[in-house]
Amino acid sequence: MPNDRNVEPRSHSTNLVGIPTGLLASSAFNEHPLKLSINGVRETNPALFAMLEDATCAAEAMEAFQNYMRTVFGLEPQQRRGEGGQRFRASYLRLLAGWGFDANGPEGAVLKGWVESRFGILPTFHKGPLGRYPSPAWIAYVVEKMSARFHNNSIHLQLDLLYEYCQWMLARFLSPGRHHLTLYRGVNDFAEHQLIEPLGRREAIARQNNLVSFSAERDIADQFGDTILEARVPVAKIVFFNALLPGHVLRGEGEYLVIGGDYRVRLAYL
User: Over 60: is that where the pLDDT of 83 sits?
Assistant: First the structure.
């Protein structure tokens, strides 16, 4: 098992959540999380959160969020496609669908770039390990995350609102009072999920990419690898899961999109 315990998670010196990035990326934070909020998002979008507060159930809150996003960002289907001579409008839904198809595609790069910008945590993997900068792997990642096709229509603000909506829904309707969810990830190797420190035969500190998919269902995680990582994921680090919107935006019904860092995990081998 690799042992690189002296290597700190790579991160930016600043972020938009008001907690030192080194702490945010650490296993200590994940075991004892604090509430997170992206600076200024709720304050500059009071109409959305007023609509959410008026909701009496999760379904009403979903409808309120979708209506707000459609109205503010022009996310009707024909506008997203750029029909009738309109410019293509980037959409958080398109990014989520792209992630579900391939987390290492252009949409995945934009999402990882958003995590960098807001939470300060650098990615560790995109199509391959992201080692020292600069490198061909890093340059390829930067080119994709800055793609002009997706950087219009205030795409980072759309993702900010998605995260804040997710946190609101978890606290109000979907997981009130909970600080962690037990989630699973199946892996076949540790190129993307570095084992930083062994904690025994079946436990370790594993460094997750800055944005990573977990599953709520162990049986589903089994389908993606012969080693299962079981982690207590802070609710504060959950960005999205399918129960937040009608229909299956992500490919897996039990898939959760989670901010990464160093996690204490239990290892099970099939």
Answer: no
